[in-house]
Design brief:
By secondary structure, the chain is α/β, with parallel strands linked by helices. It has six helices and eight strands, in the order βαββαβαβββααβα. The chain has a single domain, classed as Spore Coat Polysaccharide Biosynthesis Protein SpsA, Chain A (Alpha-Beta Complex), CATH 3.90.550.10. A hairpin with a 2-residue loop joins strand 5 and strand 6. Helix 2 crosses helix 4. The relative contact order is 0.17.
Amino acid sequence: MAMLSEGVAGLILAGGEGRRWGGPKAFAKMPDGSTFLVACARTLLAANLRPVAATIPPDCAEIGIRGLEAIRLPIAGLDMFASLRCGLQRLAADMTWDAVVVLPVDHPLVTNETINLLAASSGIVIPNHRGKRGHPVRLTRELAETVIAGEVPGPTLRDVLKAGTFADLEIDDPGVITNCNTPEALKSALRRRAGRS
């Protein structure tokens, strides 16, 4: 049973071109046939994060995932920081959240329990697995608004985190440090997960 995470939004960064996948990673496929974007959206929505949005390439077709708002990027090829800023700008119109969990789409193996733990935390939080920092991260609304205002120059999410005081949260979920940025990386991660279970 998922925890109720009041006041926590979800943002999937899925606007990349995915050259190593031969197309946007948002539409890379999991073994069950679902896309990375669907897998990430399911995880955030199952944790009762609201609203949940995803930045997507400007030329992609309709997403059609119930409960997920698609935010088309203005141009192709924007970096992660620019994608983050676009997503936060759209989410900021909704005043019901005071924190947001930001999940890059190439981390589709993150568990529902991890999202629940981040949502139930306070402040700015980075998940760790066996001492290694990963994704998704939890940002406060205050920090998100500084990104929107251009007060945090980037160009990386790490620079955004340095703009505030963050806490590390040790989590027993290898998905937080599993960047599935190539088909081989996904296959390797799935083999490790099968061996672990």
